[in-house]
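ok so i was messing around last nite and threw this chain in just to see what happens. nothing serious, just curious
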Amino acid sequence: MLPFYENERKRKINLGGSTRVSSASDLLDSVKAQREARLEQKRRQDSALRIQAFYRGRSQASVTKDEMRKTFRNDVLGITGLRCLVLLGLDEAALGIWSQTVCSTAPEQVFALSKGRSWLTLVQRVALSVLTSVSRSPLSPNSLSHLQALTVLLSPGDVARAITSYLLNHDYYSLISTAFQHIPEPKSKKAPQTAPLTHLAVVPLSLYPPTSSTFVSSLSKFLVHIFTIPHLPNRIPLSTLPSFVSSIPISHLHLLSPHTSQITSFLAHQPNSVEARVHLVANCSMFFSPHYAKFGNQGVVWYLRFLAEVFGGLPVGVFDSVAQPKSKVKDKGKGKEAAMVVDADPAVPWVLPEDEARHSQPNDLLILDTKTHSRISTLQSQTHIDSLLLLARRSQAVQEAFVIFVLALGRVWPTKREGVLSTILASGGSGGSGGGLVRGLWRDVRGNSVGKDVGVSIFDPRNASAWPPLLLLAELYSQALQMMGDDEFFSSVSGPSGFSGASSTGSGLGMKNPLTMEELVLFSRMLLNVAFTLYWSMPTVTTGSSSTIAPSASGAAAAGYSWEEAREKVTRCLVGIHARDSRKPFVPPDGWLVTSSALDMRTFVQAAMLEEQQLAEAAASSSEDDAAMNTNGESRPSSLLRNLPKSRNGVSGFSARTIASFSPCLGVLNNIPFAIPFEVRVAIFRQFVRLDMQRLGIDDRYRRGGWGYGGKTRVSVRRGMVAQDGFDRLGDVDLKGPVEITFVDQFGAEEAGIDGGGVFKEFFTDLCKEVFDTDRGLWLVNGKNELYPNPHAYATEPHSLNWYRFIGRILGKAMYEGILVDVAFAGFFLAKLLGKQSFLDDLASLDPDLYKGLIFLKHYEGNPEDLSLNFTIAVDELGVTRNVELIPGGSDISVTKENRLKYITLVSHYRLSRQIRKQSEAFFEGLKEMIEVRWLRMFNQQEVQILIGGVNAPIDLDDLREHTNYGGLYDDRHPVIVAFWKVLNGFDQEQRRALLRFVTSCSRPPLLGFKELVPNFSIRDSGTDSHRLPTSSTCVNLLKLPLYSNERIMREKIVQAITSGAGFDLS
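result:
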């Protein structure tokens, strides 16, 4: 590289100079920058001028205020001084001087200028400034003198009323409430400011006559602002508390009746609405409930309705959210519980009924402190309820208000509902003019039009007043049904009171049925009409919300009930009465059926089929995203079903209540199925099965003899090992599809015959003989030879539970196919399948001795502690007896008068449910794989038993003959066939059942008649040998009848065949 190239990297300098040329854009930028600089300078100057003006103004104002303060000090109580004080505003020093001067000056001098309008106007504004100062800082050095000065100004008189009126119009009670709450609660009682502040809170209530609008306005504001102060009783000094209570115009509270809705509406729009309502309830309970004697009937009516409306705006279960929920230790000395103990078994019915459990979730919005909770708890106490009942017996208006109060309390506090209802029932027998509450409610309900017939008239707002007594009567009677045994239920009413035998202080727990059987028949019909209308015609509501009963405050709307909640209560009572009638009928045969002319059964069945199909479609598409929406976002025609809430278990996991919310027909069938004839429900059940088969693509022809089609599962089963082979080879098979059974004899050879369904039935019959044999150890029988799971510990082992699950699947298969099974289950066991609880009366069929002992304890008039019972139960397993605690620490808790009902309930629950819970769950798990739960809810436990095993009804030969097919040489007029029906007419019912079993493998006729026998009963000839016995092919329900020469021979051969007990090889 040449050296001179290195100079190219050096900076070049032009020593000759250069010419500077500016473009147009440069000139514009320069002008713009100069303009912005001028604007910025002007802004600075303007800002400086404003700051100077503000400073001069403040300085001048300070000077002026100093001059005004000097003028004020020279004339503190004069017009000039008051004007200066008003202009000074919230000048704490000046206000303090004025307050101290007023307190140290004689009242005559303070009010010397009161006749002048200017003085009154100025004093009103000064009083407001003083009160505002107190509300901001109630513990300031001048606050006490401020309060004392206000006390002087608000002394009784015309001037005081004028000043108070002005203050009331300027948030007087709001400022008082704020002052109270700004004083820390621990210091409140000892603070000297609390007493005069308490006095000022009640001053307006004594200045105006009760007839004035100002008085009513003051009283309503007093409730809204003062009674919503948290822990108000704990803030007021004990010396001041009596005067505070006596100053509350309790006898005039009824004047607030026209303003109740305004009060609750105001509270609803507050930012802390729930907390304010809760503390209002607590303070009302503290200050009002002990003084019912001062209320008068009108006052009690207003108070109960007011509380009901306040409850209506609170979240359900809010009173259960208590801080520091610590479990308390039992009092071992007396054997009484210091707190309710929850059974370790989650299914224990004592804890909470199913319809209440869904409302008992913890409230996340507000946690109550123990003081507030304790005060609110007095509302549901026995003493409080008894005092209200006493008042209700003296006045119909009080009784109506009490009804609404109890309904509202039960809704907002569901965990206490049972206790309140039990207290009412126990107190109902204490006598009194007019009879007990239950009978009083019955008189009201009987006189109303609601429930007289099925119809939408029940939704008429004019019927609003009829709902509260109906709902409370339904709740009370539902509770009574849980407390009454069958012996008490079917006993007559003693005396005019509702529960002459029940008393909260009596020694026995027995009670008489408050309604006669004739009244119960009428009551159940009214409930049925109401319930059916609410399921069939209830106004459509969106999920999660519902219209309230009757917009009128006189109806159940005051208690906050929706149509859906009313339907639940009516249904619960109706189902309870029907359960008693199922055990011992007292209602006429057709008394449970809906008789409305508007209900056509054919239309009902078709609608049920459509709803079931739509429900199944919704379940099938539930896993798809937005399956229920069109591309434009609109719902499809079945949107009500498609938008139903999701369940972890699919559609099968929905409760009867949920299904009722979007499916009228299924709602009726799942909640009050007895309103529809049993035969119709069985037909619907069979149709549901057919729909399910179509959905799964199962060819229905295999059920009608078309057994050559593919898709069947083939299983070989050894004679004598039916149960074990079935368990081993059918465990993972989809039993909803066709299953072909082949029997293998003792020599290992397959038996003759093609399984067209009859072999499976025979297999199932043999299977039942083995698995339901009590010697096998899985089942036991009660005194009626009804089966229930063995409660022994080995029955809860995994292998045994697998057997229960397998048996459930096989039984479900039989129900799915319509095969009747000769097996009977205990009612309390089947009740679990339907989600129903078992009660004391069910124990009689399981353990009669234990049942008699518990009944003795229930009616024992002595001291139960003398019986030396505790909360344990003795369990005998293989000769070894061990004690099981019914509740934690039960061995240390004695049975007393107070807790014996709980002991009886827990013992019954242990024997009927807890001991066999795992076995039952496994069995029902297998059954539910085949049969949808909502299908089974169409029946009660007695009807499910009929669905499983049929009914021992007489065999109708005319029906059998009408649906019999003939083959070969035979027809209905053939001499042998004529002789055959003559022979059958001479059979008794046992022989007819034996013949039916011989041909079809089941001795009971189909539930819907022989038209439902698939395939139909058939007869064909089998030769002319008169010495040959008749044979059968149970797979096709075929009787092979030889051509006998006379009726005598035919009868002998048929009787010999049906009593021989031969196997399938007989054919």
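not much to say yet. The radius of gyration is 42 Å.
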